[in-house]
């Protein structure tokens, strides 16, 4: 597969040339097409993966669960020992303006939005004391629509040998720009012919996918790993908990191993951009009867209604042109 930069995209970033290296808060920002969007060569996110980020999407011009994402971004800054953090209202302003500019330029459609906060730029010394102030970048691009098959037939995951980072080393709860653990896991999965990797932790317990949380259904009960196993506290994961509670579906947050997956009739993953996706093949073996299961479908329907309710409640915040 060839790597491509999306045609329909805009990036908001500090006006590096005019603001100089010393101070970026509060920066002015400019919104530019991808071919004009550059970060400085001394940016720490490039050298050390020293950044944090969030991804959400829009529904009908409304940024979904923005407050929850900002809360998690701040939590990542705390875990990442950021001493300074850009003003939240500035991040929101950048995010909203970039979406508005996108809709004006490309029309009203659903978009993917990524907010990245780099610790800044500075001398090539890993010590964060060398960093300028943190600065924000916002990426907005047309949302990739997975093929219908994705939801109707499900996807193939492979349990990989690459283990999920240990929380005491690089806590997966911090959504940082340092995704090499996940990059290596998905590269291994793809060599095995799978679309994504299911990672175990160092003790052999199931954790998560490379960009999603993982669930399995055993005897009608939904299982998912507790946060303590070393995973990201997914915002969609949390919504799935609410859906299960409201629909009378039993959910257990507990440790489980790869061998227990052998007795699970359904599996699915969750993420902000893809919602709920059935996993119908695990390491080249069919899950259940190899088709998306009824509980997975009910949970996805429940999530869709929660999203519709959110959109109705936030209708006045639509950024559509
Ligand atoms: C490692 C990882 N786990 C889980 C998720 C799902 O989180 P959310 O539902 O908040 O999108 C993501 C999303 O990017 C992720 O990168």
Description of the structure:
The structure is a single chain. With 321 residues, this protein is an alpha+beta fold. It folds into two domains: 9-142, D-amino Acid Aminotransferase, Chain A, domain 1, CATH 3.30.470.10; 148-308, D-amino Acid Aminotransferase, Chain A, domain 2, CATH 3.20.10. It is built from ten helices and 14 strands. Strands 7, 8, 9, 10, 11, 12, 13 and 14 form an eight-stranded mixed β-sheet that branches. A hairpin with a 2-residue loop joins strand 3 and strand 4. The protein is globular, with a radius of gyration of 20 Å. The model is unreliable at 21-25 (pLDDT under 50). Bound molecules: pyridoxal-5'-phosphate (PLP). The site of pyridoxal-5'-phosphate (PLP) has 13 residues, from helix 8 and strand 12. Residues 55, 208, 211-213, 232, 234-237, 270-272 line the site of pyridoxal-5'-phosphate (PLP).
Q: Strand fraction band?
A: 15-25%
Count of individual beta strands: 14
| CATH architecture annotation of the largest domain | Alpha-Beta Barrel
pLDDT averaged residue by residue: 95
How many H/I helices?
10
The CATH superfamily of the largest domain is identified as D-amino Acid Aminotransferase, subunit A, domain 2
The total tally of domains equals 2
Topology (elements, then pairings):
Blueprint: E1 9-14, H1 16-19, E2 29-32, H2 44-48, E3 51-59, E4 62-63, H3 66-79, H4 88-106, E5 111-118, E6 135-142, H5 148-152, E7 155-159, H6 167-170, H7 180-191, E8 196-198, E9 213-218, E10 221-224, H8 235-247, E11 251-253, H9 258-261, E12 266-271, E13 275-282, E14 285-286, H10 294-313
Parallel strand pairs: 7-8, 7-13, 10-11
Antiparallel strand pairs: 1-2, 1-6, 3-4, 3-5, 5-6, 9-10, 9-12, 12-13, 13-14
Helix pairs in contact: 8-10
């Amino acid at each position: 597969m060839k790597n491509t930069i999306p045609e329909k995209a805009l990036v908001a970033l500090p006006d590096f040339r005019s603001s100089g290296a010393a101070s970026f808060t509060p920066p002015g920002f400019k919104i530019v097409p991808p071919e004009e969007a550059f970060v400085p060569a001394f940016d720490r996110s490039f050298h050390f993966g020293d950044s944090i980020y969030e991804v959400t999407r829009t529904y009908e011009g409304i940024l979904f669960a923005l407050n929850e994402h900002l809360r998690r971004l701040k939590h990542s800054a705390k875990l990442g020992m950021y001493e300074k953090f850009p003003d939240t209202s500035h991040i929101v302003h950048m995010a909203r303006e970039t979406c508005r500019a996108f809709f004006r330029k490309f029309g009203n459609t659903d978009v993917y939005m990524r907010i990245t906060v780099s610790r800044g730029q500075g001398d090539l010394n890993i010590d964060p004391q060398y960093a300028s102030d943190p600065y924000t970048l916002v990426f907005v691009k047309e949302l990739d629509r997975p093929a219908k098959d994705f939801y109707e037939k499900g996807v193939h995951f492979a349990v990989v040998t690459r283990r999920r980072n240990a929380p005491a080393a690089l806590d997966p709860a911090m959504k940082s720009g340092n995704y090499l653990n996940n990059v290596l896991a998905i590269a291994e999965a793809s060599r095995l012919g799978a679309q994504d990797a299911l990672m175990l932790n160092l003790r052999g317990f199931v954790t998560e996918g490379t960009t999603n949380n993982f669930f399995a259904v055993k005897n009608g009960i939904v299982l998912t790993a507790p946060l303590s196993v070393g995973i990201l506290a997914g915002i969609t994961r949390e919504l799935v908990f609410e859906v299960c509670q409201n629909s009378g579906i039993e959910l257990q947050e507990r440790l489980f191993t790869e061998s227990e997956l052998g007795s699970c009739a359904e599996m699915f993953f969750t993420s902000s951009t893809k919602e709920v996706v059935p996993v119908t093949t695990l390491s080249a073996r069919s899950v259940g009867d190899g088709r998306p299961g009824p509980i997975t479908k009910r949970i996805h329907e429940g999530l869709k209604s929660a999203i519709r309710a959110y959109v109705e409640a936030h209708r006045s915040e639509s950024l559509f042109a």
